[in-house]
Amino acid sequence: MSIEKIKHWVVVMFENRSFDNLLGHLPHIDAEDGIRDREITLPYPGGVVTVHPSTNFTDPIPDPGEGYPNVNAQIYGRYDPATNAGKAAYPIFPDFMEAPFNAAPEGTVPTMDGFALDYYYNSLWQAERKLTDAEMQSIGAVFTPETLPVLNSLAQEYAVFTNWHCEVPSCTFPNRTFYHAGTSAGRVDNDLTYNYAWDNDLPNLFDLFTEKKVPWKCYFPQDQVVPLTAINLAGARHLDLWRDHTAYMPEFYDDCANGTLPAYSWVEPSMMTGDLDDYHPPTDVRAAEALLAKLYNAVRTSPAWEDTALVIMWDEHGGTYDHVVPPAAIPPDDIEGEEGFKFDRYGIRVPFIVVSAHTKQGTVIRDLHSNTSLTRTLRELFDLGPQLSRREGAAKTIEAAFNRAQPRKDMHELHPLSYTPGVANPGAQQPVVGDLPDAKLLVDKHKQKFNERVSELGEVSLRNAARYLDVDPQEIPDKASSARKWLGDRFVKEGKFYLPRRNSA
């Protein structure tokens, strides 16, 4: 294996898409791994959704549910108890669902046909109305190599993992924390009252890289003001240190061109305000495709190309359709999980692609992997210390993706679809719901102009910043531009976070 030849790791984690949703129509994978020639129907009260190729770059719209009760309903095709229908899927909200939170009795065979069912009931809670049959069809929309050419092309040209799962059958924060720390410390859902960055002392990759003096850097969009990873998931215990390890995106492209990337590069897409490019539904996927093409071209043309790996991954499936049953998993630790979850099974399949000069064209890896597979790989390659958890220590590494004796010299060309930033897809609805859409706690930014809304991940990040500052979250402005200024004024200028040293002038 040639994995030891990789000196620069570039990792970008996108948001909320399943394998079938983005890569299910890949032509070169085994038939059972995809849905290319399948006829799939998903029942819901009063109708049926057919899984079909999307012609709308913002599908699914509205945003599906992704909390633990949502995912249980998607996997098992049932609401249990039946009175959970139309109730909140997150414990911070009134009228939260009741135990067993749609989880089926032990031994129940998953049906993987509950995605439309949950979409229907989740919309009753979030949108406070029934979706029309036409709106319901959006949950069955999946992308093809024609509608998602950048991602699908890279999956065919390099290595794609077809049995890669997120760690928790739930939403963003526990899954992102699992990747960084090998466990979510028993947390199962997103929570506005708990912050992984300073409510626990879990060692994370950034801590370990710093302690071992392994060069690392977080690259992020300037209009995001601060890296969301810093204020949500890692680094808040030593935010002052992040000044030496952060840079705006232009520096990433400069570092690629100069061959000066650090050993570990963590790249954040735009996930907070404006024209989001993180693949998160219901944003326009062409924005993310444009970003991914730019990242690839920068890495591929770098003088350090032969020493660099670009890793493309997702935090979790975000409620989008996948047909593969999540397998059993090793609990990461002895911490009791929320909502009765024992961390004994993985979450839904998500895409995972490795791009490297040491990867054979058309590599398909079918062995079971999960996001902590990359965590373990990095920990062992850089000698970062003992396993972070039992789950992480047992995870299969990704060395199989590096399967060439000699590095490739070819330059694969990408052809992203035309896209105009800041313009909503013609004919598409404007987003109406998101991850945490309760109007009493979160301002409904989706009713604002397209480029003036704050994502729900952004809203949580702003509230976490407010909590860190010990100020009332109600003072956060509604409009995206004003919210960015507030974050800069209160979080950066007051010295709670320092702008990247090289970019702060």
Task: Record keyword descriptors for this entry.
alpha/beta; 14 strands; two-stranded antiparallel ribbon; 14 helices; Alkaline Phosphatase, subunit A; 2 domains; globular; 8-stranded mixed sheet; about 500 residues
What does this structure look like?
By secondary structure, the protein is of the alpha/beta class. It has 2 domains: 277 residues, Alkaline Phosphatase, subunit A (3-Layer(aba) Sandwich), CATH 3.40.720.10; 117 residues, no CATH class. It is 26% helix and 10% strand. The protein has 14 helices and 14 strands. The strands form 4 sheets. It has an 8-stranded mixed beta sheet with strand order 9-8-10-1-11-12-6-13, with helices on both faces. It has a two-stranded antiparallel ribbon with strand order 2-3. Strands 4-5 form a two-stranded parallel sheet. Helix 8 links the parallel strand 8 and strand 9. Helix 6 packs parallel to helix 11. The termini are far apart. About 5% of the residues have low confidence.
